[in-house]
Amino acid sequence: MKIVRFSHNEAIRYGILDGTDLVTLAGDPMYAGYDTTGERVALSDAVLLAPVIPRSKIIAVGRNYREHAAEFGNEVPAEPLLFFKPNTSVIGPGDAIVRPTQSQQVDFEGELAVVIGKVTRNVSADDALSHVFGYSIANDVTARDLQRSDGQWTRAKGFDTFCPLGPAIETEFDPSQAELVARVNGDEKQRAPLTDMVHGIADLIAYASAAFTLLPGDVILTGTPAGVGPLSAGDVVEVEIDGLGILRNIVRDA
Asked: Which residues are in the Rv2993c-like N-terminal domain (predicted)?
């Protein structure tokens, strides 16, 4: 089931994608459950938004693909390397990634996003996947020069528009059968099976939940494969994952 968040007639709602229609929902699927309303909206009449704006946090994982760590001359960490992105960095499909004036190199990083579905604290890896609401696509946009100069990653990863999410949350998805591909202006830049992750999804959830409570709607970005690179104003960047669709964003200067 693909759940989307959309705007229609100046109202923001959730819906279930059903062919060319959206079955509208009453309630918030991540936080309080939902019912169908009986109303349908043509997909062509709706504007898709980021499928979730986390009320709590976005947790991201660095260097979780060996070849990506190697392309920057880094070792793969023995344990997951976690950092946060603010919820104000989230944008949806079709929205513009804005290159801030403070940075001369803004990079794309295509990633699988995991959306948490219930309160999760000290969960075991064996039970971790039962706490997942669904999966989506993310782009962990990074001001690479600021990442190097700051010595830590908060500013470089946290600018407004630096976390595109979407287009939907798929509740029935098998990451072991999927591949991630990223393109800039139609040219392929990244391609890797999701099974290339060093630390798998269940282990990431268990590791993070041992440090801080995960809440419904929290998002975990699971790391990016090799092939990341810079974006210029006017570029169109796409991240595609089998079964989840294509997250497409344009790029512009501030």
From this structure: 1-51
**Alpha carbon of residue 77 to chain centroid:** 22
The domain total for the chain is 2
128 and 35 co-located in one domain: no
Are 42 and 135 in a shared domain?
A: no
Is the domain of 107 the same as that of 163? yes
CA dist., res. 166 & res. 48, Å (int)? 8
- Shared domain check, 150 and 94: yes
On whether both 7 and 74 belong to a single domain, the answer is no
Of 103, 82, 236, nearest in space to 160 by CA: 103
Strands 90-91 and 163-170: parallel
Provide the whole-model pTM. Answer: 0.97
CATH number at residue 228: 3.90.850.10
The tens place of each residue's pLDDT in the chain, 254 residues long, gives: 999 999 999 999 999 999 999 999 998 898 888 899 999 999 999 999 999 999 999 999 999 998 998 898 888 899 999 999 999 999 999 999 999 999 999 999 999 999 999 999 999 999 999 999 999 999 999 999 999 999 999 999 999 999 999 999 999 999 999 999 999 999 999 999 999 999 999 999 999 999 999 999 999 999 999 999 999 999 999 999 999 999 999 999 99
Show the domain range for 128: 58-253
Contacts (Cβ under 8 Å, ≥6 apart) of 113: 135, 136, 137, 138, 165, 219, 220, 221, 222
Is the domain of 77 the same as that of 177?
yes
